[in-house]
Design goal:
The complex is a heterotrimer.
Chain A (H helix, E strand, L loop, with lengths): L1 H25 L7 E5 L6 H16 L4 E5 L6 H8 L7 E7 L1 H9 L8 E17 L7 H10 L5 E5 L4 H12 L5 E5 L2 H10 L4 E5 H4 L6 E6 L24 E9 L4 H16 L1 H9 L4 E5 H21 L5
Parallel strand pairs in A: 1-2, 1-3, 5-6, 5-7
Antiparallel strand pairs in A: 3-9, 4-7, 4-8, 4-9, 4-10
Helix pairs in contact in A: 2-9
Chain B lengths: L3 H8 L2 H19 L5 H12 L4 H26 L8 H12 L3 H35 L3 H18 L4 H15 L2 E2 L6 E2 L13 H19 L14 H10 L3 H16 L5 H15 L11 H25 L5 H12 L13 H29 L7 H20 L2 H20 L3 H27 L4 H7 L1 H29 L14
Antiparallel strand pairs in B: 1-2
Helix pairs in contact in B: 1-15, 2-4, 2-15, 3-4, 3-14, 4-5, 4-6, 4-13, 4-14, 4-15, 5-6, 5-13, 6-10, 6-11, 6-13, 6-15, 7-8, 7-12, 7-18, 7-20, 8-18, 9-16, 9-17, 9-18, 11-12, 11-13, 12-13, 16-17, 18-19
Chain C lengths: L2 H22 L6 H30 L12 H21 L1 H16 L6 H27 L10
Helix pairs in contact in C: 1-2, 3-4, 4-5
Classes of the chains: A alpha/beta, B mainly alpha, C mainly alpha.
Chain lengths: 320, 513, 153
């Protein structure tokens, strides 16, 4: 009898505890620190960006972020971690496009683009066509002409495979006659080194990564809609007659199913941060090209990118 | 050069002295704990630098880096567990010394060799940064490929006792490294139907398993009450100093230069530098048989090389924005967050910062002697704790260390599985050092080979053409062949000595091997 | 262990690993398969060689047994089983509770110091508390290293 009584007591206690936890969600959010999942290594570009963001988050919110690093498989591990986290508003994370759309296609990743509630986009890092300072190429046009005249001779460096750079490369190959030899690198550091060392002649690289070695490299064109404030003198590819737009976007997401009120709070706070002039100045100093886009618009953008990437990969025969 | 004077002045600011001492102490402890690596130690402290000015932040990160790389040798000597991957080669001679009761010799040698290597690396950074950065850029796909193969050829020398087993162990390591996403086609391989394996088998948990956990099993299985006897002798410091300035001076210099050069290459870091230096020290020694049995020379080679890597890895990081090692990449992130652009003009435009940082590396290395000695004395106390407690504690530390790498329980299981693998290998004579080398070098070999194949399309020939186009690659090919022939050469030398036939014969005779 | 047995065991281990990876390489092709396949073939050949060598040595039978250190097999088995159980319960109990249990349990079972059970228990408890505190202060407080969380704690 006594055992039975104790069991009931325990059950009742559990119930009360459960109610208390449930009640929490309706109290003023956020009530405790929020886990921020970063899908890349500490000290990487994504981390640096998030750390700058955190500084201003603390200005507008009482609760801290706790950084949780889940690097691996080009971000896929961390993205999966966010997708599969409890949607209680206390786990959010940073994601990158096109990584997020490519990985479910080529790797059987543990998430899809529908696994998330999108908070907002914070960075739009366009791809750049880059050569060494002493390169014989003075414009994007010259590169294309040389490539056409000497099939296979021009060596183009990309980070990849199955990456944003690769996608841009496929796009370029689909639209223009561009018979070159592509060489893949593990990361931007290796790619930059290869360009400077002369192993490759041209590279498609992210502006943020190129900015680190700008003393040695010349950016000939940006695959962006409009010119970038970092390099106002560099014409876009479109201005030079090549209609290619390609970039990497950084955004923040919560797992799908997060409470509407919580999502609104997150979206509002992130917007405040992105409008903060000091934040914008800090980002500029760190070489991160900011571009705010609200959650709904970004979700729509992710869907168009998803279609774009699928057609590109299918055309290239990289998707079975 | 006008910056050097004020730079030295900055170092005497109380805050900076405090940061150097704290960074070194913390770094040495982080490095000595199995599982916490230099990369992690530095990365963990990056957020703290956001609150400091750029110079102080850099000084602290540099101190942690130097401390952690040296700290790895402490556990390598005392419990045969490399605290950081750079210290694998330190276990080869450090552990036999400890077993012989002379852990003091091992620790002091590691410390002084680390300091020497660190200073040499920094000298190169100070005086030759620009030309060396240009040289490092010459290393592309073919050069890196052959550098890795050269590193791998060490297996032949390391395990000259049983070359077949050594080579097979290396192959096992290489095969393990192919788990995960293939670097050339981007598709997942060998995931055994378990999704998290697409991230591959991380080197560090695998090494914690192969070395620490298997060492726990070995220690527990031995009937000893303590890890090793410890018979410190007075005058050990002097003894080591005499050995280092005497018979080791060429070795030290060679290893430090190898360390600096390897450190400059993106991708290749301390783990490769120390093994190559160990290999070279053994190759050029008159009496190679003593290596692996507690030779001070082996320790000196490994530890001076991995600390020289620090200066080397900072060269391309500061001048070109290309980090030479994982830690340098983290420091680069911290620099960029402060809005400092790397480049050759870092020495002019932000010269104050650059030179203060470089000078702080000298100071850090000098400070390392007293701090390192003090900590080494505390750590040898480990040897007076009952073995059972030490072994159990290592298991818990390995778990937390491996989990912390990427917050994944998968890595903890990797430690356990590789621990059993390592223990079993030790029992049947397979070589865990070679396995670790395979796991480290595997991805680099495959990736760079892939690059060569891609590049060969442009030069209109086969991969062989790509290799032969590069003088550095040709040099490395020759060195690899030489390295593979070494066991036969050593064998031949020994037989001749055993015969007692001292008649000089032309060296060419040996090439038939 | 006799060297013939060691050779055969290591040969078999190499063969097993090559076999497992070969079985897993089903749908791979082209550049993805090239490098692992080369290794698998090399390992298969080497494994067969080692087995053959071991059998040959064994047949001669004249080899001297190696002077191995004696191994306390039961202790090795105990700490291995303990470690597996420990890692398995971390996701349930959380890092600190699981570690405390493991530390206390293992030092009780493995401790070879003299004295009665009570003395052992006191020593083990002290060791557990000291190490947990060290990990908590050193890792969680100072370094901010995250520890695995359990479902319960």
């Amino acid at each position: 009898m006594k055992v039975r009584f104790l069991a009931r007591l325990a059950l009742a206690a559990l119930l009360v505890l459960g109610l208390a936890v449930a009640g929490d969600a309706y109290a003023k959010y956020p009530e405790k620190p929020i886990n921020m999942i970063i899908a890349f290594t500490a000290g990487g570009s994504s981390d640096v960006q998030a750390r700058i963001m955190q500084k201003y988050w603390n200005k507008y919110s009482d609760q801290q972020w706790v950084f949780v690093y889940k690097p691996g498989a080009g971000g896929a591990i961390g993205f999966g971690e966010i997708a599969n986290a409890r949607p209680d508003g206390y786990t959010i994370g940073g994601i990158n496009i096109p990584h997020l759309v490519l990985q479910p296609m080529v790797q059987k990743a543990m998430f899809s683009i529908d696994s998330y509630a999108y908070i907002c986009q914070v960075v739009n890092d366009p791809q750049a066509v880059v050569v060494r300072n002493d390169s014989k190429f003075k414009s994007v046009k010259e590169i294309f002409e040389f490539a056409k005249a000497n099939p296979g001779k021009l060596k183009v460096g990309l980070v990849g495979p199955n990456s944003g750079h690769h996608l841009m490369f496929l796009d370029v190959k689909g639209k223009f006659d561009f018979p070159v030899t592509e060489v893949f690198y593990k990361g931007a550091a290796d790619q930059n080194a290869a360009l400077l060392g002369g192993e490759i002649d041209v590279m498609f690289g992210n502006l943020n990564d190129v900015m680190r070695s700008l003393e040695e490299m010349t950016v000939l064109g940006l695959a962006a809609e409009k010119r970038n404030a970092f390099l106002p003198d560099v014409a876009t590819l479109r201005e030079q007659g090549f209609d290619v737009v390609s970039d990497i976007r950084r955004a923040y997401v919560a797992p799908k199913g997060v409470d509407k009120a919580q999502l609104d709070y997150l979206r509002e706070t992130f917007k405040k941060i992105c409008d903060d002039p000091e934040y914008i100045a800090d980002m500029k100093k760190a070489g991160q090209p900011t571009e705010y886009m609200d959650g709904d618009a970004f979700a729509a953008y992710v869907r168009t990118q998803n279609e774009f990437a699928r057609t590109m990969l299918q055309k290239a025969g990289l998707l079975k | 050069m006008e910056f050097i004077g004020p730079a030295i002045g900055h170092l005497f600011e109380p805050l900076n002295i405090l940061l150097m001492v704290a960074g070194l102490t913390g770094g040495i402890i982080v490095g000595a704990l199995p599982g916490l690596t230099a990369t992690m130690g530095v990365a963990l402290m990056v957020p703290a630098t956001f609150a400091m000015d750029a110079t102080s932040g850099l000084i602290m990160l540099g101190a942690i880096y130097a401390g952690a790389i040296y700290g790895g040798s402490n556990s390598a000597c005392l419990i045969c567990t490399p605290g950081t991957p750079s210290s694998v080669a330190t276990t080869f001679d450090g552990w036999p010394l400890c077993q012989a009761g002379r852990a003091d010799i091992g620790l002091i040698t590691s410390l002084l060799a680390s300091v020497f290597g660190g200073i040499v690396g920094t000298v190169f950074l100070l005086f030759l940064a620009a030309p060396l950065a240009r040289f490092a850029l010459q290393f592309g796909g073919p050069e890196n490929f052959w550098l890795c193969i050269f590193g791998l050829s060490t297996i032949a020398v390391m395990s000259s006792g049983n070359m077949v087993k050594g080579l097979l162990s290396g192959a096992m390591g290489l095969l393990v490294s192919t788990v995960g996403i293939d670097p050339n086609a981007g598709v997942p391989r060998f995931t055994f139907g378990y999704y998290p394996l697409v991230q591959g088998i991380e080197v560090i948990p695998a090494m914690i398993g192969l070395f620490s956990f298997s060492q726990v099993l070995y220690l527990i299985g031995s009937y000893k009450p303590f890890i090793a006897d410890y018979k410190p002798a007075p005058g050990a410091f002097g003894e080591v100093v005499r050995a280092l300035v005497g018979r080791c001076k060429v070795n030290l210099m060679r290893s430090s230069i190898i360390g600096t050069l390897v450190g400059m290459l993106p991708g290749a870091g301390g783990e490769i530098a120390s093994i190559i230096s160990y290999n070279e020290a053994k190759r050029w020694d008159k009496n190679p048989a003593k290596y692996g049995k507690g030779a001070v020379e082996g320790l000196a080679a490994s530890e001076s090389a991995n600390n020289a890597v620090i200066g080397g890895s900072l060269i391309p990081m500061l001048t070109l924005g290309i980090p030479g090692s994982a830690v340098a990449a983290v420091i680069l992130g911290a620099l960029l967050a402060k809005g400092i652009q790397p480049g050759f003009k870092v020495f002019t435009a932000t010269g104050d910062l650059a030179y203060t940082f470089i000078m702080s590396q000298f100071a850090v290395n000098l400070l390392m002697i007293p701090i390192g000695l003090l900590l080494a004395r505390i750590m040898t106390k480990l040897l007076s704790i009952r073995l059972t407690f030490v072994a159990i504690a290592i298991v818990v530390l390995s778990v937390i260390g491996s989990y912390a790498i990427r917050n994944s329980m998968l890595d903890v299981w990797i430690v356990i599985i590789f621990g059993f693998l390592g223990y079993f290998s030790g029992r049947v004579g397979l070589d865990t050092g070679a396995m670790a080398l395979g796991i480290i070098l595997g991805p680099m070999i495959e990736e760079n080979l892939g690059k060569c194949v891609h590049l060969s399309k442009a030069s209109g020939g086969s991969v062989i053409n790509v290799f032969l186009e590069s003088p550095i690659a040709i040099l490395l090919i020759v060195l690899t062949l030489l390295s593979l022939a070494t066991p036969f050469l050593l064998d031949w030398k020994r037989k001749r000595r055993d015969c007692g036939c001292d008649i000089a014969q032309p060296k060419e005779d040996s090439t038939h091997a | 262990m006799r060297s013939s047995v060691a050779d055969i065991a290591s040969g078999l281990a190499v063969l097993v690993m090559a076999g497992v990876f070969h079985a897993q390489s089903g749908d791979l092709e082209g550049v993805s398969l090239l490098f692992p396949r080369m290794l698998i073939i090399f390992m298969a050949l080497g494994g067969i060689y080692l087995c053959g060598l071991g059998l040959l040595k064994g047949r001669k039978g004249a080899e001297a047994p190696q002077d191995d250190e004696p191994v306390a097999v039961n202790r090795v088995v105990m700490i291995s089983a303990g470690a597996i159980a420990y890692v398995a319960i971390i996701p349930v109990l959380g890092f600190y509770l699981a570690s405390a249990l493991y530390l206390f349990g293992m030092s009780m079972v493995l401790s070879d110091a003299g004295g009665g059970t009570r003395k052992k228990a006191v020593a083990s408890a002290a060791f557990t508390v000291v190490l947990c505190l060290f990990v908590w202060i050193g890792f969680a407080m100072l370094l901010g290293v995250p520890t695995p969380e359990g479902m319960l704690f």
